[in-house]
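If you are new to this repository, start here. Below is one unmodified record pulled from the training split, so you can see the exact layout before writing a loader.
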Amino acid sequence: MGEFVRLEVSDGVGTIRLDRPKMNAISAQVQSELSAAAKEADSRDDVAAVVVYGGERVFAAGADVKEMATLSYAEMVRRAHLLQAFTRDLAAIVKPTVSAITGFALGGGCEVAMATDVRFAADNAKLGQPEILLGIIPGAGGTQRLSRLVGPAKAKELIFTGRFVDAQEALAIGLVDQVHPADEVYAKATEWAAQFVGGPALALRAAKNAVDRGLEVDLQTGLEIERAEFTGLFATDDRRAGMDSFVENGPGKATFSGS
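And here is the target side for that same chain:
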């Protein structure tokens, strides 16, 4: 357990909890602890799905600007790969992941949210990539993940201006997937994650890998990735259990072992 980031597990759902008052600024230490928590959640058999949560007040208001302000070009060259590592590690979790966003999710905080599979926003949420106002650009995946979520033109507009979007606009442009009252968003995200407890873990992993890897390549290569993942599942106990249950009892009644 880190000083500012911890993994809490309950009934098969893991919560990666950011807790660095007042605004969950993402310092180098927080980045390192996020990476560690993501890797732990990924490796634990008692975690079926993951919620990323910053608390009732704020998700994460961005990078620790005071920490970065004194860095030279040479120092940032040495650290830049670490700046992307924590969002890469979150995105690399092979299980379903969801961000529960309250308050601000700006800069690095927005990049954390975009590294999860889906995003649930509170009705008071504000999201954005305001790095341009500091004379820089997003550096933890924002230019790439934002454009994949909302399209290149909208991503450029948001990055060029640095403006914030509220929850309803974020929903309209595809930056978030659901909007809920602020006092319900974490519960809704946990409920979403809980549906995968006891599910076909290897099939979920294959589906996530096929989508994520497919986005990185041309269509034909993506189809080959899908084919390999699809056929590989015929070696699993869950495939056998799922199909046998369907034949005998109809859909939705299978019991999976995750193997």
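Two things worth knowing about this chain: The chain has two domains: 5-194, 201-249. Residues 5-194 form a domain with the 2-enoyl-CoA Hydratase; Chain A, domain 1 fold (CATH 3.90.226.10).
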